[in-house]
């Protein structure tokens, strides 16, 4: 709805205020991108995605249901690592982006396994993953650790950024996951088929 039209209809409201109002309404109409474990999020394609811990809480199940006359569910199992607290459930997950209804970039978070001297009792382990929607199946094409109390992996204030036009995700670490790796930003291009291509690393 054009601001000029609203200004004529509501002459007592300033143009700047109308702009803020339109921005707020647009934001309110956007689907949520973060959910707790066992809850669902609606993707931009209209599909519904759910992440939930498996009964033994050592893996996570992802389920995406495509809408239509005959809804099509697709599932896959996502692995964790030994830094995640044993038997602990998924805390939350977040949709970073969807790529042409062919792939989803997501982040899932868990509690850290406690270590000695009461450290990491409130810590978290977070993964970034790319899930390709391959026909009737889901396939994890990429997984990297974003943050870890146990393994001393830490993001910078820039964190994770999505660049929509190029389908590029950039991750900026203060303490990267690979030993000996310098701090800085690394970018990855996600192709339409969900495969991931690392780009040249940018360091401070």
Secondary-structure blueprint of this entry?
Layout: H1 3-9, H2 15-29, E1 34-36, E2 40-42, E3 48-53, E4 59-66, E5 72-79, E6 92-99, E7 103-111, E8 124-134, E9 137-148, E10 154-163, E11 168-175, E12 184-190, E13 196-198
Antiparallel strand pairs: 1-6, 2-3, 3-4, 4-5, 6-7, 7-8, 8-9, 10-11, 11-12, 12-13
Helix pairs in contact: 1-2
Report a brief summary of the structure.
The protein is mainly beta.
Main structural class: mainly beta
Which H/E pattern describes the elements? HHEEEEEEEEEEEEE
Mean pLDDT: 83
Q: What kind of oligomer do you see?
A: single chain
Query: How much is the radius of gyration in Å?
Result: 20 Å
Supply the number of structural domains: 2
> Can you summarize the main beta sheet?
5 strands, antiparallel
Q: Distance between termini?
A: 43 Å
Total strands: the figure is 13
Proportion in helices: 10-25%
Beta fraction: over 45%
Largest sheet, spatial ordering of strands = 1-6-7-8-9
Q: How many helical stretches?
A: 2
- Low confidence ranges: 20-30
Shape: globular
Features:
204 residues; mainly beta; 2 domains; 5-stranded antiparallel beta sheet; 4-stranded antiparallel beta sheet; 2 helices; 13 strands; 47% strand
């Amino acid at each position: 709805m054009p601001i000029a039209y609203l200004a004529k209809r509501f002459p007592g409201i300033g143009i700047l205020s109308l702009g803020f109002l339109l921005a707020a309404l647009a934001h309110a109409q956007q689907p949520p991108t973060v959910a707790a474990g066992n809850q669902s999020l609606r993707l931009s394609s209209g599909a519904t995605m759910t992440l939930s811990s498996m009964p033994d809480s050592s893996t996570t199940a992802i389920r995406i249901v495509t809408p239509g006359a005959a809804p099509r569910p697709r599932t896959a199992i996502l692995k964790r690592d030994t830094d995640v607290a044993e038997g602990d459930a998924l805390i939350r997950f977040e949709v970073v982006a969807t790529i042409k209804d062919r792939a989803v970039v997501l982040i899932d978070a868990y509690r850290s396994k406690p270590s000695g001297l009461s450290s990491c009792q409130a810590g978290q382990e977070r993964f970034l993953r790319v899930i390709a929607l391959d026909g009737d199946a889901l396939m994890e094409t990429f997984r990297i650790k974003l943050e870890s109390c146990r393994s001393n992996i830490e993001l910078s204030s820039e964190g994770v950024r999505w660049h929509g036009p190029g389908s590029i995700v950039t991750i900026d670490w203060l303490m990267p996951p690979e030993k000996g790796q310098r701090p800085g930003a690394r970018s990855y291009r996600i192709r339409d088929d969900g495969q991931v291509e690392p780009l040249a690393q940018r360091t401070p």
